[in-house]
Structure formats: structure tokens, C-alpha cells
Amino acid sequence: MAEQAFALTYDCFDKDQDDEGTEQTEKFLNAENLYQRAIKTGNGIIEQREKMTWSFFKAFNNKMILSRYIYLSVHRYSEEVKDKIITNLDKSIAGFTDVLHQEPTPLYKAQALVYVNCVMSRTEYSVEHMRIPGLQRDIARFKEQVSALLQEEGSVKHAIELAKDNHRVLNTMARALKGTDFEEAEDTIRMSLEAESNPNINWYGYLLNGELALERYKRTCTTIQSKRDPDNVEVLKRSISDLTTCVEGMKSSRNYSLLGEAFMKLALSESCTSLHTDDGRETEVYKHLVQALIYFNEALTKDRGARDPKVHGFRSECLERLKEDKMAIESWKRAVELDRLSTTYWGNIKSLLLMLLNQCRKMSDSEDFQPVVAETATYLKLALCKHETVYDKFMPALIEQFPEQFLHAANYFTITNDLTMAMRLWDCVDQTIGQRPLSQEIEERRRRVKKDIEDSQEALANIDVQEPRSSDHEQTADSNPREEGATGCEELEERFPATDEQKAFMPLPVVKARNTRGFHYDFFVIHSAKDEEWVNYTLLANLEGEHRLKGCIADRDFELGKYVVDNITAAIEESAKVLVILTPDMVQSKWCKHEMKNALHAKVEEGSETVIPVLLKDCEVPDEIKNITYLDARRHFDWDHLLRDIKK
């Protein structure tokens, strides 16, 4: 049982977290029960040293549960969460105290002393800085208890001295101390590297030393002048040296990402901010940024790097500084897709929207302008719908900076019949700007957009009055009449193609396919019209925009005047691969099912793997493709995997 509990505890370190860490918390709670049963069952049977070991890991497990509930209190505070914090703080302190009273080995004693001190310090810090109400009295009581224990058993310095020859234990202690006693953590890591300097053995020691140096640089450098101070730059170079040594011993995503971050900071420390000199030579800034990008790209290829929004965020920032705007936008999209934490999500979506809105402003006279507006509008909608806190954090500031671009986005939603979102964006602009004067051109656009929204609402209301629908096909004023099926409506003989105005917002097609087998398109997309914004401005933006693959979508690429069924057949025959985007709307669409059956028939005829199902949202996978391996994109979209299969 103890072994099962140990496995559950450490399994959590290898899994993705959901918004509140509920899955991991459940595992920690299960582990706690197993530890309790193991200790109770083994009492009087197992040796004292083994019992002490189990007690230590039970206390460590309670420490992890405590961390989860402190984190949860930031997002959803309640009396129940408060009680859980008190309970697990009590269990953690009592558990490590019990270990110290069982005559532990020097190494276990050292770790117990450090952990009990860190548990207390971190909880106290959280209560003070996160403003968790109602805990101050309990914290004071526990603090007295821990102080008495440390006086009795020995200080943190005594603990470090006990473990001075064991680099692994010193690393563990330094990691625990990092958040509560920075200088002590630095001293502990120095002892670890003195005990073992081989990076193949003690790579983690070099990682922590480099990480601490990078953290010291960030804490010290709050102004441009301080970033360029020679002493601070030397700290940064020391961080790069240690992290480079660390990578020699362990090539992991985290290690490469930290090294990339350090090089990006080094680029910002240069007095010259230009990427090239007047005569075209590369500056040190450019060289450092390119080196940082190499490390971020490498991080994406290791362990869980491709699933880490932080890596994508750092890479995006680096690309932005290198003025690779289109690539930076796509990288920010990956960060937004992957980030499920409300505390960090808003920073990623803000950076993405800022780049998209800037792109709108720059491209107002370009033929790409309307597709860029649609792309921007799509992510504005995502930002406003995913987390309620997003609007207050940064949206008014963006509206102040880009009022005209917000009005363009509202106009896009009017044209595509998403009148609820059109009105919401217009209201956002109206509330933020108020009666303040804008340029005559923007004021005119503001009035025109409002009138277009009202006219569209009135037109849809009149249609509903004149042609009442049955309850099975009831539509609201802001619904899209094209939302039944991949290319049209529920019935095969009826179809609502995109209007010319709507087509103008679609991504511009790639001129030439990249496949070497003579197909006119690299891929054809079967999808519900309700998923078209994701298809047009996430899927196509990546596959066509960044990777220059030539795609085929119905409203943009089908030949006018041709029977729909013939267009579908031709698209499948002329495409190297067929992507089936699986969502609840797609599997209910007769058009989608028809397209999918045609694609499967073509697959059998060709004897090749041409159909790639992509499970985008939870739904019942159709029987026709249940035996085909699909890409599960519900939590993480593996773009590299999809690209490999399309190019295969």
C-alpha cells in the first residue's frame, strides 16, 4: 500500500494540470489514505526505519495537498477551502514533527527540518499576500509550534550541515528553500555542486544554480539602467553558464526553456537595441535572440514542451522581438490554446490580441485586411467568452488604443450574423469611449456599425415573423442560417453558401500545393459551419499561414455553378489528405456525413491513408471512422503530429 501511495504522489508531477488541479488533488488524497492504512497495518510488524520513511512521505503528501488548496483559494475561496488549508497545514507539521521524534537518519532529519520550516513560511506568505481571510490567528498558533520544534530539533542551517555530502538531498532542500529563503537556497546549491560537480550526475544542481541566478537578475533589474549594469549582466552570464552545463547532463524542455529565457534577457541587456547595424551586420542583440529561439524550439521537441504554454509564450516573445510577427502570432495562439489557468491565460490572450490589433492597423490598405479582421474578431470573441475576468484586466485599455479595429471586428460579426457578439463589441467601445471625441472617420464608422447591427436585427426579426419555423429548427436572432452542416444546412438538397461579403473575410488561399504526388490541394477539411471560425482562423492560419500548405474549404474553394455533390467529390479526389473535424455539430450534420462517406470510399479506392479524423470536442465518433486512428485534440492539439501526417 505504501508503494502504491508513493507512486500516486509522484505520478502527479508527470501530468498536466486542469484549472484547479482537481485530478492531482484526488490522487494526493487517495495516497494519504493508502499511507494511513499502510502505517496502521504495519504497526508492530515493520521495522522502525521503514515506518519512519512512510511517515515522512505521508507528511510530504500532506504538504502537496496543502499547496493545492492554497492555490484553489485564489480561484474559488470558501469556508470549506479554508478548513482544508488548516487541516492539511496541521497534518503536515504534525507529520514532519512525528518523523523528527522517530530518531530519523541524518538525511531524513535534514529534509524534515527544511520542509516543516518551508510549509510554515509559504503558508504564512500566502495568507499575507493572497489575502486569504480568517486564517491569521491559526497561522500565529502554528508558527509558535514550528518555532518551538526548530529550537528543539535544530535550525535549517543545522539541517543543511547534516546533508552536506549528499547532493541529491541538498538539491531537494534548496528547491524547498527557494521560495522562502533565497540566500540560504543559493548557499545550499553551492554545497551541492561542491559535493558533486559532474553535470551527468548532478545536472539538477546546475539547473537550480542557473535558475536562482536568473531569478536574482530578474529581481534586481527593474529598470533599463539596472539591466545593463555590468554586475547584473555578470549574474545573467553565470546563469547561462550553469544552464548550459545543465543541458549537457539533461536535455529536457524545462532546461532548454530556461536557457532560452536567459539568452533573451541577455539580448535585452545590450545598450544597442537594433537587430542589424547600418551596414547590415547582425548585432549582439540579434545573435542572442536567435540563440534563444534555437533553445525554445528545442524545448518544444522535448518531453512535454509542446504542451507547455510557458514555452510557447517565451518563443512568441522572442519571435516578436525578432520582428517575425506572423510566426509570433501563431506561437501566441498555441500558448492561448494550451493555457487553462485563469491566472495566466489573460496575459497570453492579451499579447495575442495586441499583435492581431496592431496587424489590423498596419494592413488596413492590404488585400489581407478583411481576413486579418476576421482572425482578430475570432480571438476577441474567445477572450470575452472564456474567462469573465479578462475584460476588466485589459480590454478597456485595448479599446482606447484600437477603437477603429474593434469597430471593424463588430462589423465582421454583423456580416456573419453573430449579432450578439457584434452588439457586445459595439457596447464595449461605447462604454469605454463614452462621449469623448474621436476622429470624424471613426465616429462615422461607429454610427454606421450601430445602424448595420440594428438593421440586421430588424431583418432577422421580420424573417421570423413572416416564416415561422418549427420547434425542431428554431433559430434565434443572432444565429447563423449557415450553421447546419459542413457546407450548408441539415438537408442535402438545401444549402446556404457564404455571401460575397462573408467570403471576403476568409483566409486567402495558398497558390501552390506542397505535396509531390500531383494533388491540387494538400488537404480538404470536412467540418460543421458552427466550427468555421476555428477552421478558418486557427487551423488554416497554422497550416496555410505558417506552413504554406494548400487547403480546400467549401465556401472559399468550391467551383461556382457546379453541383455541391460534384464539388465535394472533386475536392476529395484533388486533395492529398482529408481532415474530418469531429465535434457534436459535425456528427449531426448530414452534409458532413455525406462528405465523410465519400472520403472513405475514395480511401478504399486509392488504398491509401487519406482520411485524418481530428477529435476537437467531445462527441460520439461516427461508426464509419471508429476503426481509424484519430488525433485527440480535446485538451492538446498536437500540430507537429498533424503536419507529419499531412506531409506523409
TrEMBL record:
Span list, region Disordered: 460-488
Compositionally biased intervals (Basic and acidic residues): 466-485
SMART domains, sorted: TIR (SM00255)
A Gene Ontology biological process term: signal transduction
Domain TIR residue range list: 519-648
Origin: domain of life: Eukaryota
Protein name: Tetratricopeptide repeat protein 22-like
Organism field: Branchiostoma belcheri
